[in-house]
Every structure is written in structure tokens, then in C-alpha cells.
Amino acid sequence: MTTIDTTPAFSPQHEALINSVPLRDGSSIQSERVSYDHDGSPLEGYLAWDASGAEGRPGVLVIHDWFGEGEYVHARAQMLARLGYVAFAADIYGAGVRPQGDEAPAVAGAFYGDQQLLRARVQAGFDRLRSDSRVDPDRIAVIGYCFGGSATLEFARTGAPIAGAVSFHGGLITHEPADVADLRAPLLVLTGADDPVVPDDAVIAFENELRTAPELDWQIVSYSGAPHAFTQPMLPSYRPKADARSWKAMEAFFDDVLA
């Protein structure tokens, strides 16, 4: 019998996202809230997995947008669990910090301005996922949306032992001098061709920085007609075709790096 735990209930838009990934026969998707910390600061994430699976499965760390850890990344974690991954939606901001409206840019900006803290908070989520007995610690990828996309790429710059990193419409931050010496993980950058936050010159500058490490494995895909936040169904920026295509690109990437 196939069962799924979606408590609390998801919005119709997020439920539709989850259901876009078919349940496998015999699967039993479970989820739970997870309390953890970074240097004494309490954090609260969300773990989703298929209880019918064996131990030693690949894990995927999911980093939220600038509204914080919430229903959207929970839905993505559920989708990843349906694919057979153990997915952990990490908390970068801290337990209870879930900004709304005009508060979000200020909260995100504080982390953009402190890259050491940003990277450390992703590290805390990575460590929590890596410690899960269901997860193969050598097969963990990181993905992120908007703010989380930027955070994912910044974490990859630390040389963390991740199998791959995927940015969905994240900001493409370049460093002067180029900060790619420690990059080891393959990168997949999925961006909107009509994204004013990440214009063409930002994409080119990011590509040029990556080119300073000729051995690095990276891909950048632009989706026509897609603005910023094109994967988020609760926003006017949502573009279903670009969302579906970017998810399929991630799946193919994972088939390669998490095999």
C-alpha cells in the first residue's frame, strides 16, 4: 500500500507541485520537523524520506528563498523524497525567523553581507543531513532557490564534500579576486533569461570566473521568458514550463552525480 504524510496540509499550489512527481509503488513518504543548532543558535528544518527505502540512500539538502524555511521548500523536499532521496530543508535564518513582505530583503541582506555566517549555516544543515543513518554521507547534493541558490553556490566555494550543487534562479555572486580554487563539486545553474536580478552581464561575469578553473564541471541553463523566482507557484513570476524543465534538468544532473 502506498501512503504519504502531508501533515500539515499543503496549499493547492504546493500540493500540485508534489503530485507532479508520481509516487512509486510501495512507497511511504514520511516527514518530520527537525531541531538542530549552529553555535548555540536554534534552527528548525524539515526532513522528508521514503520509509520503504533502505539505508545508504543519496541525500539532498534544500536551501530556502529569502522568506525562510517554509511550505515551499517542504513541498520540494516531498518531491525529492518521492524520487528516492532523503531530503532536508535547512534553516539558514534561525528558528522562528520567517520574514514576510518587505522584511525579507533585510533579513536576507544580513546574510549576503556575512558570507562566513551564510556558509556556516548551510554547513550546519549539511552536517545534520549527513548524520542521518538513512543517508550515504558520500552522496549528498545541495540545491537552493533564489537566496538559497546563492547560498548553495557560496557553500560549494568552501570545498565541501558534496556531490553536486544546483541553483534555481539564484543570484550569481562573483568574487574579486576569483574565489574558485576550492570548488570541487559539479555545478548546475538554472536561471531565467528574463531575470532582472540576474541579467546577462551577471551570467557572463559568473561564467568568466568559473573559467579560471578549467577542470571545474559546470553548466548554466537559461529559460526563455522566465523571470526571477520562476519556480514558485504562489508568485506572479511562476512559469510552469520553465519550472518543469528545470526540475527535469536537476533530475538528469542527479542521475549523473548521485549515481
Task: Please describe what this structure looks like.
It is built from seven helices and nine strands, in the order E-H-E-E-E-H-E-H-H-E-H-E-E-H-E-H. It has about 260 residues and is an alpha/beta fold. It has one domain (about 5-255): 3-Layer(aba) Sandwich (Rossmann fold). The chain has a nine-stranded mixed β-sheet, with helices on both faces. Strand 4 (about 55-65), helix 2 (about 70-80) and strand 5 (about 85-90) form a beta-alpha-beta unit. Helix 1 packs parallel to helix 2 (about 70-80) and helix 4 (about 115-130) packs across helix 5. The longest helix has 18 residues, at about 240-255. It starts with a strand and ends with a helix.
Feature tags:
Rossmann fold; alpha/beta; about 260 residues; 9 strands
* Number of strand elements: 9
Structural class: alpha/beta
- Proportion in helices: 25-40%
Strand content: 15-25%
Number of domains: 1
Quick recap:
This protein has 7 helices and 9 strands, in the order E-H-E-E-E-H-E-H-H-E-H-E-E-H-E-H. The protein has about 260 residues and is α/β, with parallel strands linked by helices. The chain has a 9-stranded mixed sheet with strand order 1-2-3-5-4-6-7-8-9, with helices on both faces.
Topology:
Blueprint: E1 3-4, H1 12-19, E2 28-38, E3 41-50, E4 57-63, H2 71-82, E5 86-89, H3 103-112, H4 115-130, E6 135-145, H5 147-156, E7 164-168, E8 187-192, H6 200-210, E9 218-223, H7 240-257
Helix pairs in contact: 1-2, 4-5
